[in-house]
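Backbone geometry:
***
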Amino acid sequence: MARISTLAADVSLSEPSLVEGFPGVGLVGKIAADHLVEEFEMVHYANVYCDGLPKVAVYAEDDAELRPPVRIYADADRDLLVLQSDVPIRPDAAVELADCLSGWFDELNVTPLYLSGIPREKDQGTVPSLYGLGIADGVDRISEVGIEVPHEMGLVSGPTGVLLNHAVESGRTAVGLVVESDPRFPDPEAARILIKQGIEPLTGLDVPVDDLVDRAEQIRQAKERLAKRMEEAGEESTQARPIGMYQ
């Protein structure tokens, strides 16, 4: 059974935004989520437990403390939450997770921002395009900040697709951000676009990304092994893809 175990009950939040960072194409969501946690030195707010999640414990560099693979971080001053995952998540586990999160979202009046990459081969120096999707009031939020909508029919799969599907079924306000991403390698540049053109205008935050750009190669190398696992994971990999009008 899924549950969220709160560690920092003293953290006070008011209608926070939650940035989801499941691994997927280009690892764009994970890179963006990890950057927010590190840049804002966010508090380890809660652990996420679910029968379908891998039963593993993870540890960080130069840190002896073991943690579960899926965690939530908080920044009370910025009314920001980040859902961080260090492992691929199967869609069936995401179904249970979505059910668990829905009540928690209602309790805290959370607006989730779901992140995904759409595979695109890009020429060097080309700026990735970002597209916005929404459910309920999320559609208005996308329009209000001027985020472009997709130019073709498509779908979002993997655990992020499950969470978006759950929002569609329940009519819960949510936003989806889709960015063109390298399908083979970690893509810090696409993650930067997610932050500057998507997360910033939607949350009103100013997120420094100089470190993300300067350390792009280092980040790419650090995430390479996980990217390979995501490529092999198939349906566990969060991604958006065009489907065309006729199939």
